Amino acid sequence: MSLFFLLNNSLRRPFLSPPPLAVLLACVMSFNVDQKNSLSFSGPLEDMFGYTVQQFENSEGKWVLIGSPLSGQPAKRTGDVYKCPVGKEDNKCIKLDLPENTTVPNLHEVKENMTMGTTLVTNPNGGFLACGPQYGYMCGQQQYISGVCANVSSSFQILNSVAPAVQECAKELDIVMVLDGSNSIYPWTSIIDFLQRFIEKIEIGPKLSQVGIVSYGETVTHRVNLSQFDNTADLLEFVKELPQQTGFKTMTALGIDTARKEAFMPERGARPGVKKVMVIVTDGESHDFHNLDKVIGECDDDGIERFGIAVLGDYNRQNKSAEELQKFIKEIESISSQPLRDHFFNVSDEVALLTIVDALGRKIFALEATTGNFTSSFEMEMSQAGFSAHTSSEGVLLGAVGAYDWNGTVVMYTAGETIVPGKTQFYDPETEAGYEGLAGYLGYDVQSASTPDGVLYITGAPRYNHTGRVIIYRLNEENNIVVSQILKGEQLGSYFGSVLQTVDVDGDSYTDLLLVGAPMYMGSERDEQGQVYVYKINQLGKFKHEFTLKPVNQSCCTAHSASCTNKNEPCGARFGTAIAAVSDLNLDGFNDVAIGAPFENDHRGAVYIYHGDQTSLKEKFVQRIPAGGDGEKVKFFGQSIHGVMDLNGDGITDVTIGGLGGASLFWSRDVAELRANMTFDPVKINLQQSQYQCEHSGRKSMCVTTEVCFVYSVKSDKPKFDSDAGIRYDLTLDALRAKARASFINSDDKNDRRITRSFTIKDRERKCVQETFMMSARLDFRDPLMVSLEFGLTDEDRGPVLDESLPRSINKTIPLVDCGIDGKCIADLSLKAEPSMKSMMIKSNKDKFDVNINIRNSKDYAYNTKVILSFTPNINYVKVEPEKGCTLNHTKVECAVGYPFLGSNVEENFKVKFEVNPKHIQEVIQINVTATSDSEELASTLSDNTVQISIPVKYEAGLIFSVRPVDEHIVVKEGEQFASVFNDTRMIGEEVNISYTVARAGEVVTPPLDLTVTYPHLSPRQNHLLYLTHVTTSPRVKCDADRWINTDKINPNIKKPNPNKETLSVFLLTCSAELYCASFTCSIPEAEISQVNVTFRVWKPTFIKGEFSSLHMLVNGTLGIKNTNLFELSSGDRTRIVKIQVSKEALGGIPIWVIIISILIGLLILALVIFALWKMGFFKRKSRDYTKEEMMD
What we know:
By secondary structure, the chain is mainly β. It has 15 helices and 75 strands. The protein is flat.
């Protein structure tokens, strides 16, 4: 499996393309990333120029590094990285020729298609790391794709090559093929084909590998000595005519022993110090199997690594049993070296041998981490180390998705050592036992998180269990993996974990967030919309899901779409293909995030900007930067993103966005804060106050002066030569009314309710302006007068942009009053409030009640009258009837009454509805109701402005109480024998398992409970009835049953049962003075579900010796509530009864005399029935009486 299969079909970061020119960008919602002015870099689309981007700075200047993984087409396609200058007249990109200078000594390197530039990251030392994960090399005829990274200095010089998965090839091997040539091998030509195909993969020579061949049947023959051939071609020619040994016996032990003693002798070409390998091919169980253990032990002593191949053709042709087949396989497994997964093969027949040639070759020529043992290192040879990379002060993390059969791993590379985790270190053997995790692609992306307790390492496995997961781990003192948390994907094929990004939002050097991309998450229309999961780290160092980011929904064409055509598939956005933590863009002190959606708009692409907020993100994106163009040459904008540097010297971070065919550097504009405030003189409008009268155009009325003050400040610290800003503002009167009740005196517009002005302001200057408006002579007082202010910059395309978090408009109201010349309104409010229920038994969260409210004003107008209800958190506000302007703030509701005023001698009635909140349990519902207004009120009349309501409540415990089984039936045979000694509880009698379950039902919590289990323990004559053996419970449930469990301590002690014979004639055995019952109690805490499992044994000796025919024993489970002040149980939830029926069956069945008497009685009853029917004439046939005429006829 190649890297490009992963990239193109599974979307690591699909090879996509951004627009080569910034002018193609469409105009959209914008903040301070300047979409109209940018610097563009272009390159060959077919080279995937722009697949990765990084901002870079050194002593020579500032650069954009651009990865081009297929650079070098159409020949070698090695890939490369380009350096593109910023701030110079010529911005032509220069290829760094990294593949040519990235090399690992003493290897036969394969750099074609090495995809250099697939991974590109800067490091803390001022340089960068560029990786080619498909870098390979040859070991014999085998090519291994190990991956390599170039560690490049700040001056673009390669310091060293990082290739942790590369190891020295095992070039010199002495291989002896031990072939079963007995008559059962058929056809022999298949063995020849296997030999030829296998030898083709071996470089044979004096300094390379050697091959010897031994065949056996009843005897052993040396067909080829190790030193007989010095090249592969000659040996291939020879084995074409290799004869079959033949023979009726399979002497496998003899063949192996002969090869050990003779084939590996110096006289036959064996070389001292060279690895000895033996390949045994056989199709049947050996006739000398008794010698195998000794022979194999001697092979181990001689250091011979053995590969066993079981050919099952003869077993299948003769239809041998499964037991015989399994015995044969076990024998070949015993011949093979350990571990078996690397050294044992089985094939269905001789022809199928060809199917294992490649696997066998890879195992034999696997890279040798050590010598002298039988462990295969065929685990990292296809690892593709550098598929992902992350640099930090601790070292370099390299994702190696191809390691361990594509399970993947993460390699940590430091100056001192290279840490390669074992195959199972990322998996929990307890919870994932038996799961191979094949093709999970662990290491698809890698990150690290800084916490007060140390560093957390993070890696994604997007194909694990098909839904993907993210593993968060630490390294202990022995550098072993310690998994601390696992985050799991939720949709099949979403590629959850393929993109990771940690973010330090507040800049305190500790990680705040982890963003996990699932770019192939399917939307509702089965389109790949993608989404990004945001996790926040808590004080325990665990990541908790906060929210999920999603793109603008993309409308995809269907077969029925008439006016829509998608030129490219699949449709969607693939939001989350690239996630970048970008330095503070809007200069608010919090770092931000950019997310690419390269499939948007028919693969044109887009990038979303999210601002940081304290230690999290704002869920709504502040800017969406789309690509333009025709969608043919310009595609996949947002494939790669980087933004950590100020590249034009204005003190603000700039953003680089790339893809296939090009990249663009977007300048960020400065951010300015513009704050505004309005004040009025007078603050209330009262036409009767003469001091505010004015005259305009021959009309007299009250005038109001509005003062609007602006404060302007630029956020960046860089000095500005031209820091003046043009400000434009609009003032509008009564904007929500069709006709305004006031007009501006100095309006330049025919519409005198609105005025527009502009002015200039300097950085950090405060400037105020005044405008006067005149009121109409006749006013209505239904609502206050609204004054609306809208403001912004006169030129939004140049200079700083305004901070998007600050408002661009203000609406303020001036109350209108009619309270006489002195302006004083003295009201007298009186309030009544009555609940619809005096007390409550709460059964569910749907329980509701009302508070009926009456409010009356007896004096002057009460302006802005409100009724405020403050209540305890055990209830929730629902609504008010009839509808009023009510606002809810946690546990307080404010309702406007008679807005804008409650008139003199006017009253209003309304009803406030509440429902219970089962998440808060309290004994009383408290509601404080208060009436207020902006008018004055005398202290002597305030006493009736407040009402306190108190409603006592109880809760019906919301639970389901169940028991299994409801009844049991035990049969005892009369005269049945029982053991004279009990040394195990299983000898007592049949087992009865009773399971009690208490589960939460609904929203009301399940309170702490007591479950009391009562059961018949001893009969009137002190014989055991039910014998308690076990009590198990859910966690946190505690039972006091120990004194009743196994009271006779059977096992280890013994018990001699000697029951007293007694008559058990009572049909129902219940607890009474004569019958002794035992009981125990279990304390059940608050929980979603709790279980108590009770196990009894029916004491059979009592019932065998007792006189009875059938009886029932009752086991009672009774629930009780500890806190009866708050909770009650419903009558149906208090008791559960289990009936255990015991019946005695007569020995030998029904006696013969009973059968004979029953038959005679049956016959007698039948005779009596027949006699009765005869007497009634039942058996007489009715005859017809004929007349004389009928007789004559």
